[in-house]
């Protein structure tokens, strides 16, 4: 519920409570003023004692209303609302009977019952209350007038006017309230919906996720989040035009709505990105829903899909869950986003759940929690500044993991090279964002910034004791096997073994990824480039083993 709706409900509640206060006070005053003049002293004492008891009960009632139901606004009455209404009607009947029955001037207070019902629940409920109030008035008239029925006709005409006023008030005010609520609902839909796709928008997504997480925390339940991104959407837009792109977004939106469950919410997060909130859902079930969505989109025929790099329209999906993978809304969004980028980094058209490889690696190397936080801070800074560098880092980590397994390195060395892969480009934090993402030719000064990033990276971590062993890998991952690299011009076996491995993985991903300043090569072209530069830029023996590794894991790309 947004702030506007909360404020509105609070104001409506204040009006309803005020009406109830005035109504009940009128009923009490009517009883006291009418009977206090005619009763004997003894009876007056008894009456006032009863009035005090009633007043105490009324105070308790209003305390309950104020503290527990002041923001309790529903479109339809619940059992507690009906019981409360019966209580108000009974007070009305007692007041009328106590002040002259059919001759009572306080029948007019019945208008308050209708007003309260109309404002609280609209036309149907207020008309029902008008019927109950009218029947109560007529019943009192009939019972009080018997056996002398001539008295009935004396008050009946006046009561018919009152009853007509009750129904007119119920109908007109109730209809106005219904119209206002419908209009408010439609405005809310407009505010919360994305105009193009008809899905919920980013604003609603944030509010709904926050409310779900609060409920999940109270009820000890799980909430899962899917982050989804259409693969190669820019390519589709460029070839087929923006109108076709908009139509594709609408079609994808419909598939997403049809693929989720009744209580799930899917939103357009921005551009070609979508998000689905899955209440009371664990990670395993969320992955199943993600696979259902991915499969539905892959198996749908879209206009212009033959022009896509993979000859199809596909979607990549990242999954994270609260509280198993994240303990806050911000962390849940970040982890789902990380999982999405992992899915997009490897072949796309896949569902990836969030898993902190970094946490596992640091535990294996017995790195302390504070140091892990420092490492994650560096990575998050890269992530915020340059999405390419972050995605590139994630892919290089996977490459060196497989590479190290292929070489059967010691477990400690396997962990070390993977953590070094996470850290190898942190020196780019010192490069301005406009230079990092520049599409044109770099100036000599800008190129020097890139050449300096290994030493800058070393400067960032060299004073963190647990990171000391990573310094050679970060510093020398741009050295060449023939001695033509930087920063120290090392050659051959002078370059640390793990750094030579990292150089191959880093270069291969750089060649086969979309970059602002480079034309993307296919995997086959990347392999050919590795072989052409074996013995020049790369260790020739390691190149062949890396290519064997690529062949072994080709289904993962």
Q: Could you list some keywords that capture this structure?
A:
Alpha-Beta Plaits, Hypothetical protein af1432, 557 residues, transmembrane, 5-stranded mixed sheet, HD_domain, mainly alpha, 64% helix, 3 domains, HD/PDEase_dom, 21 helices
Q: How many helical elements?
A: 21
Fraction of residues in helices?
A: 55-70%
By CATH reckoning, the class of the largest domain would read: Mainly Alpha
Shape summary:
elongated
* Biggest sheet details: 5 strands, mixed
Number of strands: 5
Strand content: 5-15%
Domain GGDEF: 221-356
Keywords: Membrane, Transmembrane, Transmembrane helix
Transmembrane segments: 12-33, 45-67, 79-98, 128-148, 160-177
Protein name: Diguanylate cyclase
What does this structure look like?
The chain is mainly α and 557 residues long. It has 21 helices and five strands. Strand 4 (315-322), helix 11 (329-345) and strand 5 form a beta-alpha-beta unit. Helix 15 (411-423) crosses helix 19 and helix 19 crosses helix 20 (523-532). The model has no long low-confidence stretch (mean pLDDT 84).
Give the helices and strands, then pairings:
Blueprint: H1 3-35, H2 41-68, H3 79-98, H4 110-121, H5 123-145, H6 150-192, H7 202-219, E1 223-230, H8 233-240, H9 242-259, E2 265-270, E3 273-279, H10 283-298, E4 315-322, H11 329-345, E5 351-353, H12 357-364, H13 369-385, H14 387-406, H15 411-423, H16 433-436, H17 444-461, H18 471-475, H19 497-511, H20 523-532, H21 540-552
Parallel strand pairs: 4-5
Antiparallel strand pairs: 1-3, 1-4, 2-3
Helix pairs in contact: 1-2, 1-3, 1-4, 3-5, 4-5, 4-6, 5-6, 8-9, 9-10, 11-14, 12-15, 13-14, 14-15, 14-19, 15-19, 19-20
Transmembrane segments: 12-33, 45-67, 79-98, 128-148, 160-177
Protein name: Diguanylate cyclase
Domain GGDEF: 221-356
């Amino acid at each position: 519920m947004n702030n506007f709706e909360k404020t509105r409900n609070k104001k409506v509640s204040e009006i309803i409570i005020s009406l109830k206060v005035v109504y009940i006070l009128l009923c009490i005053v009517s009883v006291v003023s009418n009977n206090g003049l005619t009763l004997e002293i003894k009876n007056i004492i008894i009456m006032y004692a009863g009035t005090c008891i009633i007043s105490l009960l009324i105070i308790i009632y209003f305390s309950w209303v104020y503290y527990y139901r002041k923001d309790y606004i529903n479109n339809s009455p619940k059992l507690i609302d009906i019981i409360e209404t019966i209580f108000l009607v009974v007070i009305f009947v007692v007041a009328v009977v106590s002040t002259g029955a059919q001759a009572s001037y306080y029948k007019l207070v019945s208008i308050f019952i209708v007003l309260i019902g109309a404002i609280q629940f609209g036309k149907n409920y207020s008309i029902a209350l008008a019927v109950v109030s009218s029947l109560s008035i007529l019943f009192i008239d009939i019972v009080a007038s018997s056996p002398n029925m001539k008295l009935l006709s004396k008050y009946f005409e006046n009561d018919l006017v009152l009853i007509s006023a009750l129904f007119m008030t119920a109908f007109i005010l109730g209809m106005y309230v219904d119209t206002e609520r419908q209009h408010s609902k439609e405005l809310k839909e407009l505010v919360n919906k994305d105009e193009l796709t008809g899905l919920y928008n980013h604003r609603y997504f944030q509010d709904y996720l926050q409310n779900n997480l609060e409920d999940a925390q109270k009820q000890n339940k799980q909430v899962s989040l899917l982050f989804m991104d259409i693969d190669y959407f820019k390519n589709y837009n460029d070839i087929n035009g923006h109108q076709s792109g908009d139509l594709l977004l609408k079609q994808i939106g419909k598939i997403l709505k049809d693929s989720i469950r009744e209580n799930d919410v899917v939103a357009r997060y921005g551009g070609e990105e979508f998000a689905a909130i899955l209440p009371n859902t664990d990670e395993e079930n969320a992955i199943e829903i993600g696979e259902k969505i991915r499969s539905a989109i892959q198996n749908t025929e879209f206009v212009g899909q033959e022009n896509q790099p993979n000859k199809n329209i596909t979607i990549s999906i990242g999954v994270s869950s609260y509280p198993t993978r994240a303990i806050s809304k911000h962390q849940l969004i970040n982890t789902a986003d990380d999982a999405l980028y992992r899915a997009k980094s490897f072949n796309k058209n896949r569902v990836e759940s969030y898993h902190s490889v970094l946490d596992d690696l640091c535990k294996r190397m017995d790195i302390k929690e504070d140091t892990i936080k420092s490492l994650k801070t560096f990575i998050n800074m890269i992530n915020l500044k340059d999405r390419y560098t972050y995605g590139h880092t994630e892919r290089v980590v996977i490459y060196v993991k497989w590479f190290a397994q292929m070489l059967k390195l010691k477990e400690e060395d396997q962990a070390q090279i993977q953590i070094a892969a996470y850290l190898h480009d942190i020196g780019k934090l010192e490069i301005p964002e406009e230079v990092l993402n520049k599409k044109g030719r770099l100036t000599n000064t800008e190129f020097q910034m890139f050449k300096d990033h290994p030493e800058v990276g070393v400067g960032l971590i060299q004073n963190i004791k647990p990171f000391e062993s990573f310094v050679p890998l970060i510093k020398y991952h741009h050295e060449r096997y023939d001695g033509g690299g930087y920063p120290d011009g090392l050659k051959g076996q002078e370059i640390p073994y793990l750094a030579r491995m990292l150089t191959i993985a880093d270069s291969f991903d750089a060649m086969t990824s979309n970059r602002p300043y480079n034309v993307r090569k296919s995997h086959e072209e990347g392999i050919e480039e590795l072989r052409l530069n074996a013995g020049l830029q790369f260790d020739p023996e390691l190149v062949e083993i890396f290519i064997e590794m690529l062949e072994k894991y080709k289904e993962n790309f």
